[in-house]
């Protein structure tokens, strides 16, 4: 079991246009860019008051626009600096980038299949899990006794929690309902 050197919170970015329109906002962010909605901005401003109260020391964020904007709102309220990490990016959907999420899902037989089957030019869930967990381990090794917020995306945060708890792909697939919704946060335990 991984020993935490810090107190960690995870936050999924605020509601974004890709969430409302149901398209896969992967990377690179072109030609489409998923922006926070007004509802998403309002929710993150509300969330920022919780983080202000607990006194964050650092914010680590994916470098995609919707997560950067989320982290900036939290940073303005808490005065905690933001460090952007490519390792916290959204799952690389490959050829399904900027397409409806339903098209991506049809490519797989089931949720467990997503752990090993890779969409062309993309990554599978195991690869995404390794990427975000490696990034988390680097943060955990470098910092001690800090209150740290990690701002990322639905699948990567779900995978990070699974990696920390050493869950199998089947256990992860069964825990999909435990994923964070846009603007949701919780403390890692």
Overview of this protein structure:
The protein has seven helices and five strands, in the order βααβαβααβααβ. With 189 residues, it is of the alpha/beta class. The chain has one domain: Phosphoglycerate mutase-like (Rossmann fold). It has a five-stranded mixed sheet with strand order 3-2-4-1-5. Helix 2 (38-54) crosses helix 3 and helix 5 packs across helix 6 (154-164). The radius of gyration is 16 Å and the shape is globular.
Features:
globular, Rossmann fold, 7 helices, five-stranded mixed sheet, alpha/beta, 12% strand, single chain, 189 residues
CATH class descriptor:
Alpha Beta
Low-confidence stretches: none
Query: Helix amount, in percent?
Result: 40-55%
- Report the portion of residues in β strands: 5-15%
CATH architecture: 3-Layer(aba) Sandwich
* Overall pLDDT level: 95
The CATH topology corresponds to: Rossmann fold
Radius of gyration: 16 Å
CATH superfamily: Phosphoglycerate mutase-like
Query: Which class best fits the helix and strand makeup?
Result: alpha/beta
Order of helices and strands: EHHEHEHHEHHE
Total domain modules? 1
**How is the biggest beta sheet arranged?**
5 strands, mixed
Q: What distance lies between the first and last C-alpha atoms, to the nearest angstrom?
A: 11 Å
Q: Strand order, main sheet: write it out.
A: 3-2-4-1-5
Count the strands? 5
Describe the global form.
Answer: globular
Number of helices: 7
């Amino acid at each position: 079991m991984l020993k935490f050197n810090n107190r960690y919170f995870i936050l999924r970015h605020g509601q974004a246009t890709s969430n409302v329109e149901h398209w896969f906002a992967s990377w690179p962010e072109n030609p489409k860019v998923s922006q926070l909605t007004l509802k998403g901005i309002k929710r993150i401003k509300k969330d920022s008051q919780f983080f202000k109260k607990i006194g964050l020391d650092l914010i680590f964020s994916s470098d995609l626009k919707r997560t950067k904007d989320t982290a900036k709102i939290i940073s303005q309220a808490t005065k905690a600096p933001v460090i952007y990490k490519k390792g916290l990016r959204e799952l690389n959907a490959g050829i399904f980038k900027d397409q409806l999420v339903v098209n991506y899902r049809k490519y797989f037989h089931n949720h467990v299949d997503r752990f090993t089957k890779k969409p062309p030019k993309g990554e599978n869930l195991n690869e995404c899990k390794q990427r975000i967990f490696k990034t988390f381990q680097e943060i955990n090794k470098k910092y001690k006794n800090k209150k740290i917020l990690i701002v990322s995306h639905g699948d990567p945060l779900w995978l990070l929690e699974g990696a920390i708890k050493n869950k199998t792909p089947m256990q992860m697939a069964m825990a999909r309902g435990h994923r964070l919704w846009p603007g949701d946060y919780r403390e890692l335990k």
